[in-house]
Design goal:
Largest sheet: 6 strands, antiparallel
InterPro entries: DUF3000
Order of helices and strands: HEEEEEHHEEHE
Mean pLDDT: 78
Organism: Glutamicibacter mysorens
Pfam families: DUF3000
Number of strands: 8
Protein name: DUF3000 family protein
């Protein structure tokens, strides 16, 4: 989270940013996990992983019978996954045009028809812009790439169905210290990539994070 620094060594600006993120509003379908942050991009960083899984209900018939009162469940399918990284450099960086930078990665599998859309990359970038706008997450110096990944199987995997994924890699600098809105916007993006319809209700608050 902070390159193993004690809480007393964390700058007030970064500590405030962590507190802002802990109050972000996100949809309950997105499950968060804190992961190791990159150590070379900035002196201070926080990294989160988020996944949207398909809800698979217990089946019917023989497989749905209880085994020790635990219903048989099929493995849930991952609809979309992403990474949210907050970087902080007290000295600032020229490329960022500020002290903070947000770096994101989102990947989702598409149905064949949507995967063939020639405007797919532009649509993916528009989802980012729209999500930030809807959450009033002011930003500048944004950049990124959207990539369509076509996977074909060969050899002993030749029987598996080919699939198309969309990947978005982007970064931007927040215009204010209200960083919770940026995490909320990113969470909305992951849910959009997962194919979930817009939902104003059903949000949850991230649990308050400790600095130690």
């Amino acid at each position: 989270m902070t390159n193993d620094r004690p809480a007393s060594a964390i700058p007030k600006a970064f500590a405030k940013a962590l507190d802002e993120l802990s109050h972000a509003k996100v949809r309950k379908e997105l499950k968060f996990t804190e992961i190791p942050a990159p150590g070379r991009l900035a002196p201070f960083a926080l990294a989160l992983s988020g996944d949207v899984m398909d809800v698979v209900a217990p089946g019917h018939g023989p497989q749905s019978q209880e085994i020790g009162r635990t219903p048989f469940l099929q493995p849930a399918e991952q609809l979309a996954t992403g990474r949210f990284i907050l970087l902080f450099d007290p000295a600032g960086q020229e490329l960022w045009n500020g002290q903070f930078r947000i770096v994101t990665y989102i990947r989702a599998r598409l149905d064949h028809e949507m995967g063939q859309d020639s405007m797919l990359a532009s649509v993916a970038w528009s989802w980012l812009e729209e999500a930030l706008r809807e959450r009033d997450a002011a930003y500048h110096s944004a950049g990124g790439t959207a990539t369509r990944v076509i996977s074909e199987s060969f050899g002993n995997l030749a029987g598996e169905q080919d699939h198309i994924d969309i990947e978005l890699r982007a970064s931007w600098s927040p215009d204010s210290d209200h960083l919770g809105a940026h995490l909320s916007a990113w969470a909305d993006m992951v849910c959009t990539f997962a194919g979930l319809p817009p939902l104003p209700e059903g949000v949850q608050q991230l649990p308050h994070r400790r600095l130690s």
